[in-house]
Design goal:
Elements (H helix, E strand, L loop, with lengths): L1 H19 L1 E2 L9 H14 L5 H8 L2 E2 L7 H28 L5 H30 L2 H6 L1 H20 L7 H28 L1 H7 L30 H25 L1
Antiparallel strand pairs: 1-2
Helix pairs in contact: 1-4, 1-5, 4-5, 4-8, 5-7, 5-10, 7-8
Amino acid sequence: MSGKVIVSGVSLILVVGVAIGVVCVVNKTGNDPALAAHQKNVQSICSATEDQKLCQDTLGSAKPTNDSDPTAYLAAAVEASAKSVILALNMSDQLKVEHDNGEPGIKMALDDCKDLMQFALDSLESSANLVRDNNVQGIHDQTPDFRNWLSAVISYQESCTEGFNNGTGEDQVKKQLQTESLDKMEKLTGITLDIVTSMVHLLQSFDLKLDLNPASRRLLEVNELDNEGLPKWFSAADRKLLAKITRLHVDSTLKLVSILS
């Protein structure tokens, strides 16, 4: 499982990395107009986020090939979120080994966290593919999906911490996991979500004249559903993620029933 997760995480980062482009390493700004435009773009994008300093630190290393195209900044934000999730997943694995002979509840909670972090990676992979495979207009049109994937990542992080019982030896493990990985994961994903939520502001800051009407969802017709009741356009990755989430919910319910009985 751990090997598979590491490979998946590395692949995700490589996918996002292609969209980010050249890393900007500059010791002296001087009068470089391209660098000045880059810094202006970062400040403008981050003005709509809750933690502007962390946002600027995160996006500052990305330099798009086109100063009027914000997709590289979106890709950089998604990549940072993915790296934080991988850190949390690997730490869950490490803590599980350290507490292998400890309280059963710790092992159970860490197992659930590992599953939840894998789900989070799947959601971020969908986000990375969206940024990679679409132009700015296409990304804007799919903003609701983008927001849902990022919101799911934050929900998985919250579910991970809720899996530990308060007032027990599990508290210390939870605090360590939070301090060293989950808190940063929540902040970075929150920044990405802030940027996507304020997509109109983002596009206007780049002076892009696009169709800014809110992306709408229409009801699915019966002939657009498959024999499992899912939209025919669902990708294999979407189906796999949905199956994993359903399985985790079933397992959690069975564990709760076992504890109460």
